[in-house]
Amino acid sequence: MAKEKQTFCLEGRFEGFMAGSKSPFKYLSVHGADDQHVVKLSKSVRLMLFRYLQVGDWIRVIGEQSIDQETGEPKLKAKEVLRVKPLEVVATPSSSVTSKTPPKAKQKKPKILICQKSTCRKRGAAQVCREVESTLANYGLTDSVEVKLTGCMDKCKAGPNMVVMPQKQRYTKVKPGQIPGVIAEHFQQQSNVG
């Protein structure tokens, strides 16, 4: 009988990493609305998260859930981990439990997608990621632009790869020095506010 896998999406507070046999960052601990969860990290996500996440961050974890054949317990494996604002996660006491959608239509948050596969990492994706986060902080855009670490973007020879959403503008062979200009070009109006 084949293992049946289902997609899961879990939101909660990041409580720290847990070590596995070969990696100190093999699992992450998330305190969700209903319970504590331990989620195995796929190798493609594992290497960047220890620089990216801090204990107490609100996160959304998306991945696959399967059932352990021996114990019958669910096993969670993350394919994607994103930082989110607490307002997206926490429901107010007066809100209805059955309604998960906010009362007003939510405008899509701008995102910067950065490939984290091995070829892009070897070509400097970690430095690009650090520069993106630093530049967003300098412009005061940390809360309004989401940084999303992704899997392969199918342009390995042109790495590091980055995409700015919602414009879907792709950047290849990205160097950290290019980041301030790219962010100014795409988010200049937002950074001028406040």
UniProtKB/TrEMBL annotation:
It comes from the Bacteria. InterPro entries: Thioredoxin-like_sf. CDD domains: TRX_Fd_family. SUPFAM superfamilies: Thioredoxin-like. This is (2Fe-2S) ferredoxin domain-containing protein. It comes from Adonisia turfae CCMR0082.
